[in-house]
Amino acid sequence: MKDIVENRRRISLAKKLEIAGIVVRENGLLWTALLGVYYAASTVSQRAFAAMDGLRKKKGIPGMNSRALNKAIWEAWDWNAAGEEWTPSEDWKASVIRCILEKHIPAGSRVLEIGPGGGRWTEHLVPRASDFLAVDISESCVDLCRKKFAAAPHARFIVGTGCDLAGVPDASVDALWSFDVFVHINREEVERYADEFRRVMRPGAVGVIHHGSVGGTLGGWRSNLTHEGMLDLLKQRGFSIVASFKEWQDSGTTHQAGLYQDVVTVFS
Predict the structure, then answer these.
(1) Helices marked H in 82-181 — which ranges?
(2) What proportion of the chain, given as a percentage, has pLDDT over 90?
(3) Cβ neighbours of residue 18 under 8 Å, at least 6 residues apart?
(4) Which domains does the chain have, with CATH numbers?
């Protein structure tokens, strides 16, 4: 069992003691003791997270989402699962490919992927592209993808800085894709990326970005960028929002963009 910490305040102390007696009778002392540890630890962890979030906002510190930390973390990550550890189900991934990737990334286009990681989406983008370029802050990811997609001569992988697209020529991109990347990038860096989108995307080009929506308040190692913040900084640079959604319908099934109210935004 796992509960929500906020719900505990809805029961009085006297009733909690009464409930504890029932728990002991039905589950024994060991299970009850472990429940007590869980209750105490979860309460402390939630309060610690709230305090961390408050300090992050008050002092303008990056939390776990600075460029230096992102580089260190993803360099050290075990990519043996190729990023599929973030795939909730095969049906979900198939729906992302069918309803988002194939719908918005034109076949035969010049594609830029930001943050390929272990190639989780790259394997579906490379065959779709006439020319493919991926930029990642992690050298280990770039090395991995160069080996993994060595048989595709039109696919290139370069190491980036985590805030720009240096090495990508002006007006050279027909379609831009990034998933499970901008959820970890703070607003300051996203603003610099947005300037670069304007530089590298051709007129009529489309971008598909998966990002956070609530400024990291739900955890999940998310950036401080909100849904409204992402839309505003894109609009400020002259982009039109084609779609922006937290969920979508596919054959009667509702799929979520992420576990922490993440969003997929399509812009042109």
Answers:
(1) 90-96, 102-104, 122-125, 139-148
(2) 88
(3) none
(4) 5-59 (no CATH), 67-267 (3.40.50.150)
Answer whether 183's CB lies under 8 Å from 220's CB. Answer: yes
CB 191 within 8 A of CB 233: yes
Q: How many DSSP H helices and E strands does the chain contain? A: 9, 9
Q: What is the DSSP letter of 4?
A: -
Task: For residue range 132-141, list pLDDT tens digits in order.
Answer: 999 999 999 9
Collect all residues with Cβ–Cβ distance below 8 Å to 125 and sequence separation of at least 6: 101, 105, 111, 113, 132, 177
> 102 near 154, Cβ under 8 Å?
no
Question: CA–CA separation, 42 vs 4, rounded Å?
Answer: 9
Tokens 């007590």 sit on residue: 36
Q: What is the chain's Cα-based Rg? A: 22
Q: What is the pLDDT of residues 16-50, one digit of tens each?
A: 889 889 989 999 999 999 989 998 999 999 999 99
Is residue 113 within 8 A of residue 125, CB to CB? The reply is yes
Over residues 240-263, mean pLDDT: 97
Structure tokens at 205: 């080009």
